[in-house]
Amino acid sequence: MGMALRYRQRSSRRRPARYSAMSLVRHGLSGAAWPRVWRHHELRPGYDVVIVGGGVHGLATAYYLAANHGTTNVAVLERGYLGGGGSGRNTAIIRSNYLTPEGVRFYDRSVHLYSTLAADLNFNVMFSRRGHLTLAHSDSALRTMRWRAEVNKLHGVDSEVVDPAEVAALAPRLDTSANTRYPILGGLYHPPGGIIRHDAVVWGYARAADAHGVHLHQGTEVVGIDVAGGAIRGVRTNRGSIATPVVVNCTAGWSSLVSELAGVRLPITTLPLQAAVTEPVRPFLDTVVVSGTLHVYVSQTDRGELVFGAAVDPYPSYSTRGSLEFTEGVATNVLELMPSLASLRVLRQWAGLCDMTPDYSPIMGRTPVDGFYLDVGWGTYGFKAGPVAGETMAELVATGSTPDLIAGFDLARFAEGRMVGERGAAAVGH
Ligand code: PYC
To answer: What is the tens place of the pLDDT at every residue in 333-370?
Structure first.
């Protein structure tokens, strides 16, 4: 059953400015201001759908609801600013070389959506498809990589196990000698993987959703969710109350707290994941390099900075601060892999929050509360899932039927023992 369109309003669609080389020249010559990328609105008393969380998941869900299903009376509520949570804090790695069939199919759809996103949204999201290389430092890691490569190929995803000479050719700065503490025995190479400009993805979806008439409300915190007779009735915010039959929880690190407002308990623990960026240097690394054993992943942005990440912090917390312990650890491990980076300076470090589930797969779909939907449990994989999560959640909310791609990620699997164990495909050990 599709949702009830009870709060239909006059459309507030608008044609966004068309970004092109010609319009850049025109604006440059005329000095005319560009229109705002998205608009500010007062809260309506009611919406057909309220999405909590203004990151890539919430914005993509809003966009696909409007673009694919014509559902435009939608509000996205964001406590801070759009993209200020995990969407602005991740290391922007895109890949689909997962371990389970469910994971491979799902993330492969996301890679496809990402690859046409710039054209679809008329917004340059700077997707750089440069390949993704996971290093093996032990026989057991190589075995898991062979397993992943076979599952990937079965689902039409390009991944192969490569030997140390091929690793050296893909990333010549890596120390591939046999005298290191953790010699490189091979790797899993995944050519479709890459990096993207994460803010641009957020802004592109926000702009396109706004153009369809979706209301984007920043600085709007949900402080209560009203449930009566087992169904969603509305939400209370710091700016007033909204009546709605549908709430979609897209709040990642805060998702268990938001779900509790609706009386739904989730098997989620929130852990910080830290990252850091160096000063820019000449391009030398044109693939993403990951070492699960050394708990580190490295990529070089188009501006030349190196972006590093590590394993999640070992204790639950809502802190988004960096720690000296992380910087020391990541520097030690990066230098094990690439000793020639020793004089590079770290410019910034930060943390984002990961909503970890017991099987490292997301929780998507309905809940025991009618009209309360989950798009949560992203752990360390959230950003790369944004487009496909938005597309499938929009289909579920608009049509009432669960897309096959997310059927295995339901909340009931934990009670029924149907885990989708994806830990083996984590970029780093946890
Ligand atoms: O799964 O590729 C990944 C990843 C990178 C950083 C965090 N997760």
So the answer is: 999 999 999 999 999 999 999 999 999 999 999 999 99
Q: CB of 205 closer than 6 A to ligand 1? A: no
Residue count of the chain:
430
pLDDT of residue 4: 44
- Ligand 1 atom with the shortest distance to the CA of 91: 6
Q: Are 86 and 252 in contact (CB under 8 A)?
A: yes
| Interval between CA 290 and ligand 1 midpoint (Å) | 9
Q: Give the pLDDT confidence score for residue 7 in this predicted structure.
A: 53
Distance CA 231, CA 245 (A): 7
Nearest CA to ligand 1 atom 4: 427
Q: Which helix H or strand E contains 121, and what residues bound it?
A: helix 117-121
Residue from 384, 422, 423 to probe ligand 1 pocket by mutation (most atoms less than 8 Å from CB): 384
The residue contributing the CA closest to ligand 1 atom 2 is 427
pLDDT < 50 positions in the chain: 1-5
Encode burial over 128-142: b for 16+ CB neighbours within 10 A, e otherwise: bebbbbbbbbeeebb
Q: What is the per-residue pLDDT for 427?
A: 73
pLDDT score at 35: 87
Q: Which of 277, 360, 381 to mutate to test the pocket of ligand 1 (most atoms within 8 A of CB)?
A: 381
Q: What is the pLDDT of residue 5?
A: 46
Say what the pLDDT of residue 9 is.
57
User: What is the Cα–Cα distance from 103 to 97, expressed in whole angstroms?
Assistant: 8
Judge if the beta carbon of residue 427 lies within 6 A of ligand 1. Answer: yes
- Please, how many CA atoms are within 13 Å of residue 282, restricted to the half-sphere of its CB? 1
Q: Cβ neighbours of residue 66 under 8 Å, at least 6 residues apart?
A: 72, 74, 209, 212, 213, 214
pLDDT tens-digit series, residues 297-330: 999 999 999 999 999 999 999 999 999 999 999 9
Please give the span between the terminal C-alpha atoms of the chain, in angstroms, as a whole number: 40
